[in-house]
Amino acid sequence: QHYYLRHYSSLIMTEFDRAAIKSKASAACGWNFIVLMSRQGKIRLSEFFSSYTESQKKRILRDISADVLPRQAKMCNIIEKGEYKFIYRRYASLYFVVGAPVEMNELIVLEQIHLFVEALDGYFNSVCELDLVFSLHKSLMILFEMFIAGMLCESNRREVLQQIVEAEEMVEEMSKAGEDTSSQLDDGLSFQEQFQLGRKPGARGPRGNR
């Protein structure tokens, strides 16, 4: 009887271990956040896929400004920060900084960042900082089309851009004369992202009714 109890308990522990390993592996497959920051420390895009308080987000942005921006070109572009690590690539005047779990492969993250940049280049025809300033919602649409909960779900650039074009065509068809077409794009954005665009969250319809 004691033998069967020990055997049964060992099986239970094995199942618990497998579940823990599986959850840890799944957690290490996605980004915690992504921040696009200029050389002057201006935030051009930020999206947090994991749950952070406002004070934690501000601290992360301060750490990026303090740890990433001063680094030289030949220095390692991986910075460990305890529970996560900064993995970044610089394109012209923009730093693409991803916060990833410590277990995640850095080379995979670097490749995913490059895929995102290629998609932006394909849409904006060689993306620049001004494109992100004046078309933030388009950049977020591309990001959300490629990544869900921080995990890469679509790596085909043509497929991503095709979905964006179809969404824009649908908005144009739904829009009526005198309506603010861009307000209909707010449906897929959070309140913070709508504030970044200078819009009132939840506002819909003609501008005269706002």
Assess the beta-strand content as a share of residues: 15-25%
Main pleated sheet: 5 strands, antiparallel
Distance between the termini: 75 Å
- The number of helical segments is 7
| Helix and strand sequence | HEEHEEEHHHEEHH
Arithmetic mean pLDDT: 78
Order of strands across the main sheet: 2-1-5-4-3
Helix/strand/pairing category: alpha+beta
Short account of what is shown:
With 210 residues, the chain is an alpha+beta fold. The protein contains seven helices and seven strands, in the order αββαβββαααββαα. It has helices at 2-27, 54-67, 106-124, 129-134, 136-146, 157-174, 191-196, and strands at 33-38, 43-48, 78-80, 84-91, 94-101, 147-148, 151-152.
Question: Your description of this structure?
Answer:
This protein is of the alpha+beta class and 210 residues long. Helices cover 48% and strands 17% of the residues. The protein has seven helices and seven strands, in the order αββαβββαααββαα. It has helices at residues 2-27, 54-67, 106-124, 129-134, 136-146, 157-174, 191-196; strands spanning 33-38, 43-48, 78-80, 84-91, 94-101, 147-148, 151-152. The strands form two sheets. It has a five-stranded antiparallel β-sheet with strand order 2-1-5-4-3, sandwiched between helices. α3 crosses α6 and α5 (136-146) crosses α6 (157-174).
